[in-house]
Every structure is written in structure tokens, then in C-alpha cells.
Design goal:
It is a single chain. By secondary structure, the protein is α+β, with helices and mostly antiparallel strands. It has 2 domains: about 5-75, no CATH class; about 75-145. Helix content is about 45%, strand content about 25%. The chain has a 4-stranded antiparallel beta sheet with strand order 2-1-3-4, with helices on one face. A hairpin with a 6-residue loop joins strand 1 (about 5-15) and strand 2 (about 20-25). The longest helix is centred in the last third of the chain and has 68 residues, at about 80-145. It is elongated. The mean pLDDT is about 85. Keywords: Coiled coil.
Length: about 150
Amino acid sequence: MSKASNMPIPTSKCRCNNCGKPFYELVNHKLKQCPWCNHIFSDPNSFPNMEGISDKYNLVINPQNGVPSIMVLGGIEKLVQDNRAIQLELEQERHFVNGILRVRKVLRRKYHAEKARADAAEAELKHLKENLEKLVSEYIGSGDNK
């Protein structure tokens, strides 16, 4: 780790004076409104109460490629693991969605094929009915003439 640039990321745990819910923010950056209830911190009495500061995370820059990463102090790469877990979950969801789309495409194709068959059968039935009506009128018509 000594070969990479790194610095602590101080975060503070705060509590909204309006809704009472806790939230976290960077120490050097003050949120303008509560992330829970959207209460705007406009006057000094409405600013959130700071409950503590933590230097638990380090921002590390890889000097060879410039890629930043966030590390939990103590050498545990929890955030990296969480990120990998999220990426894996997203990939699984993508596969699931792709599977649904494939099934939908197959079902749509089958639907259109069945609809075409039903339309053809309906047209054939109409044609047979017309022929039957002609035959009936011929025989009934010829029976009336006798």
C-alpha cells in the first residue's frame, strides 16, 4: 500500500433535527437537505447534529493506471467485495432479463403462428359454409321445383 497514493476519507454520522433519522456525509461537505425527509438545512437551528467522525475508509489511487478504489482500514476490502457482489447480482439479473426476453420472443412467434393457423382455419370454415349454403339452396331450390 505504500506504493500507492492514499488519504483518509473522514465521514460523519449526523442526525436530522426534523425527522430524527441518521445519515452519513463527508466531513468537509455539508448536505443542504436531509436525504430521508428532504428537510432543508437553512438556519443554524435546523442543521443536523453530528454524532461522530470516522476515518474508517481510505481513498487509494493506483499509480500505474490511475484507478481509484475505496479501502476499509485494516486491510479488509469489504467495499471491493460488496462492489463485486453487486456486479454479480446485476449480471445475474441481466441473464434473467435476457432469458425472459428470449422466452417472450419465442412465445410471440408461437402466438403469431397459431393466429395465422386460426385465421386460415376461419377462412376455410367460411368457404365451406358458403359452399354448403350453395348446395343447400340448389337441392332445396330443386326440390321446390318438383
